[in-house]
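Retro notes, structure queue

What went well: the backlog is down to a handful. What didn't: a couple of records were mislabeled last round, so from now on we paste the full input next to the output in the thread. Example, using GNAT family N-acetyltransferase from Pseudomonas laurylsulfativorans:
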Amino acid sequence: MSVEIQISENATEAERLGILSPLLAHNLSNGGDDAHETFALLLRDPDNNEVIGGLYGKVSYQWLLIDLVSVPESMRGQGIGERLMRMAEDIARKKNCTGIWLETFSFQAPGFYLKLGYSEFGRLADYPPGHTRLYFQKLLR
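Corresponding output:
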C-alpha cells in the first residue's frame, strides 16, 4: 500500500479523529471496551454559582485518572483539596477501580499526593525546562 506523509501545522479535530479512530479500534480488539466515564467535583462560588475549581476525573479500564485538580489559592490549606481527593477515591471504590493515577509537576503538589498515600511511578525530567513531570498512583485493592 502506498502512503503519503503530510505535515498539518494546526491539526483540526477531524484530523485528530482520523488518527484516533483506528487506534481506538485496535485498543478495543486487544484491551476490551474501556467504557470510560467522566465526572467532576465542582467548587462553586456561592454568590454567582461560578465554577472556581474542583476535580475532573475519568474512569477507564478499571482505573481512575485524576485529570485536573484545582483549588483557588485563597482557599488552600483548608482541607478542600484533601476532601476532593477522598471523594474521588470513594467514587473509584464504588466503580470497583483497581487504583487511581495522576500527573503533576514538581512545582505543583507532589508532596500533597505523597501525604495522601500516592506513590511515584514515573517522571519526565526537564518538562517544563528546569522542572519535572511526575506520575503518581494509589492502589485501592
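Agreed that this is the format going forward. Reviewer comment attached to the example: The helical segments are 13-31, 80-94, 110-115.
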